[in-house]
UniProtKB/TrEMBL annotation:
GO terms for cellular component: cytoplasm. Keywords: Transferase. The lineage of its organism: Bacteria, Bacillati, Actinomycetota, Actinomycetes, Micromonosporales. Residues 11-177, 200-366 form the N-acetyltransferase domain. It comes from Micromonospora inyonensis. It comes from the Bacteria. The keyword Transferase applies. This is Protein N-acetyltransferase, RimJ/RimL family. It holds the Pfam family Acetyltransf_3. GO terms for molecular function: protein N-terminal-serine acetyltransferase activity; protein-N-terminal-alanine acetyltransferase activity. InterPro entries: Acyl_CoA_acyltransferase (IPR016181), GNAT_dom (IPR000182), Ribosomal_N-acetyltransferase (IPR051908). Gene3D superfamilies: 3.40.630.30.
Length: 375
């Protein structure tokens, strides 16, 4: 296959040149690039970059793949790289990969490059492209979605980690006949400043929230509603916080932190799990530290999330459940407009192999105490 220049939206895909060596070295030796591309040599030297330009990239082309420098169309400076390899000719399938230099991040460079090369690959006969991201690389996952790649699942322990061990890879796929434009998302982003009513604010959970989430999710009353009802380890909570952005992007769960606007302190957590997308139903989970209770903060947070779920995320029905003896969350749900629908007998696994009941609450958009648009 012969390289040809491909013009994209604000980027140019072209063959590598000797003048790219310094920028390739700087881009591939960057800590973030090194973290999420563990196969790269460390440190990444100019000798390695020259080998890539002179030998490795031409070998990709010789094997039927594509290896492009992503360049600024005005200055011709290298902004990153994009390529296609691992071809399966009988399936007309291949894998696409990319990286962006530190000086070019946040400008849509990777998205433009992936879109341009994807279109070119389909025009040359491929019908299926796979893209794999590290589970904690939310920025790369946003590129995949923006370029029209849809979440297909997780390949367990598919990628070796730098320093030893293996980690999961998240699989994204685009077909030649997929609709144009970004891939649809079940859970949209919050507004840039989160959600607030002036008293409480909701923001996405992240890696800095481990202490809070560990305190919340090791509370006995919270553990009792876990499935199974076992206290999580700190590494498990750390992983949940690190993966929160990814889980949101793939549409599994929106994890949020409840913040007291007056103090800026966080003391609660909310989770919206889209458990039945076909019928637009989602499950709500909520918890709060004991010292925060009795001030109405969690109820305010639930109302904020409810409005976002119905008015922005397109949810048609929300439900929540808790053990019958757990009265406090039932009060919160009722204050937010949820209606008790009954008891689900033996729904939850209890200790020592027992089963426990769950009280079922549900909320429709018209059940809200003050739904938007009501006079």
């Amino acid at each position: 296959m012969q390289a040809q220049v491909i013009e994209g939206d604000g980027v140019r895909l072209r063959p590598y040149r000797d003048t790219d060596v310094a920028d390739i070295t700087a881009g591939c030796d960057d800590p973030l690039t090194q973290r999420f591309l563990p196969a790269l040599p460390s440190p990444y030297t100019e000798a390695t970059a020259r080998w890539w330009v002179d030998e490795a990239a031409p070998a990709v082309w010789a094997d039927g793949g594509m290896a492009y420098a992503v360049a600024d169309p005005d200055s011709d400076r290298l902004l990153g790289a994009v390529g296609i390899d691992r071809l399966v000719p009988m399936r007309r399938q291949a894998e696409i990969g990319y990286w962006t230099a530190p000086w070019a991040r946040g400008r849509g460079v990777a998205t433009a490059a992936v879109r341009a090369l994807t279109g070119h690959a389909f025009a040359t006969g491929l019908v299926r492209l796979e893209l794999f991201t590290h589970g904690e690389n939310a920025a790369s996952q946003r590129v995949a979605l923006a370029a029209g790649y849809r979440h297909e699942g997780v390949r367990r322990a598919a990628s070796p980690q730098r320093g030893g061990g293996r980690c999961d890879s998240i699989a994204w796929v685009r077909l030649a006949d997929d609709p144009p434009g970004p891939a649809p998302r079940l859970l949209p982003d919050l507004p840039p400043d989160g959600l607030t009513d002036g008293v409480v604010a909701l923001r996405p959970t992240g890696p800095d929230d481990v202490d809070l989430m560990y305190r919340l999710h090791t509370r006995p009353e919270v553990v009792a509603n876990r499935v199974p009802p076992e206290t999580p380890t700190r590494p498990e909570v750390e992983r949940r916080c690190r993966m929160a952005a990814s889980n949101w992007l793939v549409g599994t769960v929106a994890d949020l932190v409840v913040v007291d606007v007056a103090t800026g302190e966080a003391g609660g957590g909310l989770a919206l799990r889209y458990d039945e997308p076909l019928i637009r139903q989602a499950m709500l989970g909520a918890s709060m530290l004991p010292e925060w209770r009795g001030r109405g903060l969690l109820t305010r947070g639930v109302r904020l999330m409810v409005d976002w779920a119905f008015d922005t995320a397109g949810v048609a029905r929300l439900w929540a459940g808790c053990r019958p003896e757990n009265v406090a969350p039932q009060r919160v749900l009722e204050e937010a407009g949820f209606r008790r629908e009954g008891i689900q007998r033996g729904r939850l696994p209890g200790p020592d192999g027992t089963r426990v009941d769950s009280v079922l609450y549900a909320l429709l958009p018209t059940d809200r105490p003050d739904p938007p648009g009501r006079p």
